[in-house]
Design a protein that fits this description.
Two copies of one chain form a homodimer. Chain A is mostly helical. The first copy, chain A, has 20 helices and two strands.
Chain lengths: 740, 740
């Protein structure tokens, strides 16, 4: 049943995992440095693992409840029985990707610091290869899970056949996307709250009140801060991008199956289903080539380093463009030239968003420099200007995504804009193209927190200014590449969100089929005798547009409009809840650090030892307590909307959440990034430098920006997709309920 | 042609204007106090008038360009020739309402301060009656302009007749709404930038750096700050609410004409057109009764004062409910009970939003008190918590608006949810109901800035603590009632936005008619011989849903999706531009105030006189320069979207802008209000009181909140509607262009 060409996919995934194992072992062989360095790294590792254990416990409970719910739904024939299991594997692999990435990062930080004692280049090598472990684990596990389910479901006996069978396979696989999304949301929200509570708490008392530098061992929240980098920026990001990666491939596969369902062409349908998987598989191989291309000589300057990273990512991107044309031609899919061009469109949109992000958030450009200058009139103008900057910065990403939508849709539909199913498939293919080089972009992204932690380790272990300067240089390098990575993550979320919307309609079709519906009514007309007769269409022949007509999903339907308002509100409400969560958890941390400074004698002179463990515990408890409500809300909102407002309401909710959420996410990420770098720009000696009033004002901006860019902003990306995934899995319930 | 019952409308509007004149004269008879008080008031008055003159000059240029454009469009038969003139009168009356309100306010402030020297109650009376001038001028001019055009167009000779004629009348009248919106946007943006640049500048240097109190005569920006209250909070608000008021009535009238067009029932169509006007006219009379009901005895406590204001507004609301049932019964409109209930729904939604606003922004409740407490950990946590609070506070307003949409739609459509035209008419009627008591709610709203300015006058004239305490009490009273007023403004913007969307479709129909289109194709079917035939419908019989089908305005159309992304982005971009504008203008002000403190000797000891005029000039120039780009952008966006993405793109833009813009507006208004009152709560002696670190932290929050609540937030309300109005007026161009 499974055609031979498909086997490229699992093979590529296994290559990625083997190589990740190789890089991991290479890193482990490096020396971890002095005893003090080992001890500090051990503390961080222990804290991170103990937090992750707690988080998985809570997520486990949520998963157990959902699996029971899906089981009940399967029992009542509202879903197929594979759903609960697929859901579980998605959650498991997403968590595993985060866990392995974090394990690597916590082993790598002291080793990076130790390598940086030798040279900048050695430090880069250790950090980058460790980042590559995460990149390869995410794409490897993602494609492995996809391959496993694809093969399994192909050999499962059902009464379905032909094009229906492939639709069954792809929509069932989407459930595993929901598992990954759920896991990712908890990881991002929980990790984000953890890391920012520790960071904000450490900064507010340590930097601002006590005037001690960042990562100073006298600060009781320092270990918690470093643990936070690992659980938020590494484990959280890993789970997040695992979800993005699988989500885009699965949604596109489902669209491919749908696009050729009505034509009954099983062969072409198969090709459309495996095309996104093949592009991703080839992307893995080309990412690996890119990773090996990252090399510098021993005397490399900062600029050389940046160049060598750029060589790796650019090489991968250029190769994937060429390879896509080849693989789609070889596959023999119809309209292969245009589909390959859609991949190019996706890559370009990602790159433009990345560049725009860099322009608005890097201290090398005017906007952030002006933001630093606004510190001359105090913290209030820093906040006003930062919010202004963030809001204005949404224009370019939105316009590029819009162009990406129109172009990829038009290309795939061969400019027949009424051909919705092929057009949407093109949007999905663009999203897959955007994420195809994730192996290497994630490597350059994930090594940032490793370098950051290496800096923390160097500071606490007293390795001296030179080492700290090198780790700072590595960290700063990571910030630049991370901008591009963020562009890809956020752009792909918007496109994948659209693709998932189409999958929702597909799932509605299946829900109606399950209820025995054979025809849907699309309107009425007058027959030659003057009688009104219904215009109907066979369910399996109905197009997306037909379903829109059937359910009156137009923009004058009050249910659609209501759903849209609720969707836009959900994005804001979710951000507000996570912002408040960080505020509350940070306040606890501040109280604790103040208490320790007050009660533990000699802590500031370095004679007394702070109680690090207590701060770790506070962050852990805070994150655990605060992550549950917003996450549950994201799961419940589409279900309740479906029960009250029906299918039109759900579609409104998803679109409203997608459009407002995407813009809000860009705003928060860019405002946060700009505040961070505006502070760095002052610290580089501008406008009075460290310790000046301008610096203090920009520190306020940076602190506000922390939850913007690391908690609420990135969680929104997942929220957008999770709401769609929940809607898809619950479609059977919505359909049945509306007919009751 | 015009039925007798209609004449109630102009009569009510003339009563309102006569009464406004009476209150104005009563206020003018009061004494303006000491020579110093007169001098200060004169400065403020002069500054305000000179700014308004400058603003009208720039707006005049924009209007001239637009009138030429409309003239050209009329010449090429893309619009009817009445459009340019209607556009001009809308702009003129909107500006006039703001101008008269401001004139009154600048005369009233010193008189209020002087009256407050006698007693709190005398102060309330002068301030409230002066606020009532503005309330009555806005509703009076609004209905007068509407009456004028309604009568004129009824007697105009056209080749139209029957139901078409009424559609022609109502859609032409909508153009005057666009004039009012354009004027209002400039007034809000320009005035908002002016007032906040002065306010932020005065606070940052005066309060924070020099440590002198608010409104201190030693602060060079004090006069500019007081001028700002008048041009932003009075003239801006007047133009804004004039636009809201007329917009909701005109959009509903247009919907009424459309709802009965296809049935050919001219009589019922007439009733549906005048119903919103009649409700508004009766609302004027009942507002006047409410205004006279505001009375207290000489020894009234603060609570008594609040109660007496509440008596006035509650009385008006209760009476309007009763009167609506009466007037709609008397009018004999079909389904009158349900339509009256829709008015009740509108009023209730307004009240719920107002209450929610009060809960989230008043220092009497937990959220704002907790926000004050977050100042204990510095300004950064104040900002984080304030943003969190604002975002969470969007939930209740959105849910009430959604319930309002569903209920008013369902009531008017008699629960046949597919009956879009009557359903949308119900939404419009709810918006009219919400704004029907604007005469009194605006009076309670407008007297706030008068009391604020009276406080400024008292401070600068050295009238002593007791008088200042009384003016502060009046100001604080105004803040509470303003919360309700804001709820009505923001809720009605959302509902009116939806009603305008329907008017856009109407205008598309007219555009097609003008091009000679007689039938639109809705799909295809198979005839008994197996041939595919087109399903068509006569243009004048096509419903809203038919137009949605004809233009494929469903949520799978990439043009619609692109429009939605752009719409959501527009809301953020517009806010970002106005935030940046305030930041830049405030920075200039800060530089100037610092320069004066440095260069003018003895300024802080009271021996040297600050150069007030220079600060007034800086704010004026800043506002002028900065208001143009965002305002022009709002006008251009729907035109460009229409040319590129056609009708589906424009509808996407409007809906995306409406849903994201509404939520964003609530967020910004509430965050800003909460920051303001969190600072006041600390100043009342909590968490260390004035001068403490917590106070300094909350002052940062207040400063950030200023442009949130007084510039960007309120401008968004207008943006939402202006984009719809522009789309409506430009519909002819869009239709013709798409067919080229």
């Amino acid at each position: 049943m499974v055609q031979p060409i498909f086997w490229i996919v699992p093979v590529a995934s296994i290559i990625a995992l083997v190589l990740a194992w190789y890089f991991y072992n290479g890193m482990k062989k490096e020396s971890e440095g002095t005893d003090l360095m080992k001890k500090i790294a051990g503390h961080v590792r222990k804290g991170a693992m103990s937090y992750l254990k707690q988080q998985y416990k809570i997520v486990g409970i949520v998963f157990a409840c959902l699996v029971v719910l899906f089981g009940v739904m399967a029992y009542f024939n509202l879903q197929n029985p594979w759903v609960p299991i697929a859901f579980l594997t998605g959650g498991f692999f997403s968590g595993l990707a985060g866990f392995l990435g974090m394990k690597t990062a916590t082993y790598a930080s002291a080793r990076t610091a130790n390598a940086a004692r030798e040279s900048l280049n050695r430090g880069l090598r250790v950090a980058f290869r460790s980042g590559a472990v995460m990149g390869l684990v995410v794409v490897g596990l993602g494609l492995l899970d996809i391959s496993f389910w694809y093969v399994l479901l192909n050999y499962v006996k059902t009464d379905l056949d032909g094009t229906s069978k492939l639709c069954f396979i792809t929509t069932t696989m989407l459930t595993f996307g929901m598992g990954a999304s759920t896991q990712a949301l908890f990881a991002r929200v929980g990790g984000g709250i953890y890391t920012k509570a520790a960071d904000v708490g450490a900064d507010l008392v340590g930097k601002v009140e006590a005037g001690i530098p960042e990562d100073d061992p006298r600060n009781p929240a320092t270990i918690a801060d470093n643990v936070g980098d690992n659980v938020g920026d590494v484990a959280g990001m890993g789970a997040d991008l695992y979800e993005s990666y699988c989500g885009s491939i699965l949604a596109t596969a489902a669209l491919g199956a749908a696009a050729y369902m009505t034509s009954g062409d099983v062969d072409m349908q198969f090709k459309a289903v495996v095309a996104p998987m093949l592009i991703a598989a080839v992307g893995i191989i080309l990412s690996i080539i890119g990773i090996f291309a990252v090399k510098t000589n021993e005397n490399a300057s900062m600029k050389n380093l940046l160049n060598s990273l750029a060589v790796g990512t650019n090489l991968s991107s250029a190769l994937i463009v060429a390879a896509t044309f080849g693989i789609l031609y070889w596959l023999g899919i119809a309209n292969w030239v245009n589909l390959s061009l859609a991949v190019v469109v996706g890559l370009l949109v990602g790159i433009i968003i990345g560049r725009a992000t860099e322009y608005y958030t890097s201290q090398s450009y005017k906007p952030t420099q002006r933001l630093s200058k606004s510190g001359e009139t105090g913290p209030a103008t820093v906040i006003i200007s930062g919010i202004g900057l963030g809001m204005v910065s949404t224009a370019i990403p939105v316009i590029s995504v819009v162009l990406g939508i129109i172009l990829s849709y038009g290309l795939a539909a061969q400019w027949n804009m009424a051909d919705v199913s092929h057009g949407l498939y093109g949007i999905g293919i663009a999203a897959v193209g955007m994420l195809s080089t994730l192996g290497i972009t994630l490597a350059t992204d994930a090594y940032g927190p490793i370098a950051d932690n290496a800096g923390g380790n160097a500071e606490m272990a007293g390795l001296g200014k030179e080492v700290r300067r090198r780790t700072d240089a590595l960290d700063s390098l990571g910030n630049t590449t991370a901008a591009t990575g963020k562009g890809f993550a956020i752009g792909s979320a918007a496109l994948t969100g659209l693709a998932l919307l189409a999958s929702y309609i597909e799932e509605i079709r299946i829900g109606l089929e399950r209820l025995g519906t054979q025809f849907i009514q699309l309107g009425t007309t007058i027959d030659p005798n003057g009688n009104e007769i219904a215009i109907t269409k066979a369910l399996h022949e109905a197009t997306f547009t037909d379903f829109m007509n059937y359910y009156h999903v137009d923009l004058m339907n009050p249910m659609v409009l209501s759903g849209m308002f609720i969707g836009a509100m959900m994005a804001f409400l979710f951000c507000g809840l996570t912002m408040n969560a960080v505020g509350r958890a940070a306040a606890h941390m501040v109280d604790e650090v103040r208490r320790q400074f007050r009660e533990i004698k000699g802590i500031l002179t370095g004679e007394g030892e702070p109680d690090y463990a207590r701060c770790v515990q506070i962050s852990t408890k805070g994150a655990q307590r605060e992550m549950v409500f917003p996450s549950i809300l994201a799961i419940i909102a589409p279900i309740v909307t479906g029960l009250i407002f029906g299918v039109p309401g759900v579609i409104g909710l998803l679109i409203g959440g997608l459009s407002a959420g995407f813009v809000l996410a860009v705003f928060m990420a860019n405002a946060g990034g700009a505040w961070d770098n505006a502070k760095k720009y002052v610290e580089e000696g501008n406008f009075g430098g460290k310790g000046s009033d301008v610096h203090k004002a920009t520190v306020v901006g940076d602190t506000v920006g922390d939850p913007f860019k690391d908690t609420s902003g990135p969680s929104l990306n997942i929220l957008i997709k999770l709401m769609s995934m929940v809607a898809i899995v619950m479609a059977g319930l919505t359909v049945t309920w509306s007919l009751l």
